[in-house]
Amino acid sequence: AQSVTQLDSHVSVSEGTPVLLRCNYSSSYSPSLFWYVQHPNKGLQLLLKYTSAATLVKGINGFEAEFKKSETSFHLTKPSAHMSDAAEYFCVVSSLQDTGRRALTFGSGTRLQVQP
Amino acid sequence: ETGVTQSPTHLIKTRGQQVTLRCSSQSGHNTVSWYQQALGQGPQFIFQYYREEENGRGNFPPRFSGLQFPNYSSELNVNALELDDSALYLCASSPRTSGGALTDTQYFGPGTRLTVL
To answer: pLDDT value at position A31?
Structure first.
């Protein structure tokens, strides 16, 4: 079984300060991990993806995430928040099921607010 | 390259009715997945289609059904609508590798907002 826990439902930061969105995962198989962003009334946009090539993954718009197997974590960070970063962020785990099918499991989301 | 498109963008139905949502996959992608996102929650996997056959299903009742066409576009059908079916329905497409394995990365459309009154 696989699961994802996003530790904060809401995060508020000031523009120009660092962003940290926390995610812990559980997976029976070697997982692939993703972060997606969803702006209001929009679909999901892929920010970055981890597939075991490197533990530090760089994504779009200055975001990056570090895979820590010992902590089963995949936290998302950005050095300096921008107003346009305000959105809902989802941590996602993908793993191979017994059926041979890959399944995506989404976390419950973290709403990021950026204050001017 | 055209991304994933969905239609309609918004839809209002009444309880007991039936609805069909449509999705065109991204060019070169032959696998389509559907998700339901209730307000304030993360998306929940409904089912996936590959080569016009259902290739996996989440915890949704049989009144949720789908089709995939030879051009890889897809439909989601929901019968006997209930109030709790009100949600954003997301379609995602993904390619298979030359060896046939499904890649992880899924590309999402903008969704269809369904309201059931």
So the answer is: 80
Return phi, psi of residue A36, to 5°: -115, 150
Segments of chain A with pLDDT less than 70: 28, 95-102
Contact across the interface for A90 and B108, Cβ inside 8 Å: no
**Are B42 and A51 inside 8 Å of each other by CB?**
no
Per-residue pLDDT at B96 exceeds 60: yes
Q: How far apart are CA B33 and CA B46, in angstroms?
A: 8
CA distances from A16 to A22, A65, A88, B60, B113 (A): 19, 18, 19, 43, 34
User: Which H/E stretch holds residue A23?
Assistant: strand A23-26
CB A68 within 8 A of CB A11: no
For Cα atoms A51, A33, A55, give the angle at the middle one, nearest 5 degrees. Answer: 55
Q: How far is A81 from chain B (nearest CA, A)?
A: 23
Kindly identify which residue of chain B lies nearest to residue A43, measuring between CA atoms: B110
Banded model confidence at residue B84, pLDDT cuts 50, 70, 90: very high
